[in-house]
Structure formats: C-alpha cells, structure tokens
C-alpha cells in the first residue's frame, strides 16, 4: 500500500511512520526487518493460513 495514496487505511492498521510492513491487514513490522526475520514471518503466515 502506498501510504500517501491510502492514508486512512494506513492509519487504521496502525502505521504511524514508514517504513512499515503489514501482512493480511495486520501491522507486522514498524521498521525494516532483516531478510531472515521477514522470511520467517512470511512462512509463519503461510503455515497459519494453510492449517
């Protein structure tokens, strides 16, 4: 989501500053994560949604 284009939605999910990463409408990172942490979090989301 481009925060400038979707400001209301960004505020709704809790984005107060950039960079921020949301997955499935939930704010997950409020800063850039390491590649390893991002991969782990994405895998957890995939595992959770397939169960």
Automatic annotation (TrEMBL):
Which species is the source of this protein?
endosymbiont of Ridgeia piscesae
Highest taxon of source:
Bacteria
Q: What is this protein called?
A: Thioredoxin domain
């Amino acid at each position: 989501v481009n925060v400038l284009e979707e400001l209301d939605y960004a505020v709704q999910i809790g984005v107060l500053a950039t960079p921020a990463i949301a997955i499935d409408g939930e704010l997950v990172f409020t800063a850039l994560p390491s590649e390893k942490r991002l991969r782990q979090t994405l895998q957890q989301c995939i595992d959770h949604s397939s169960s």
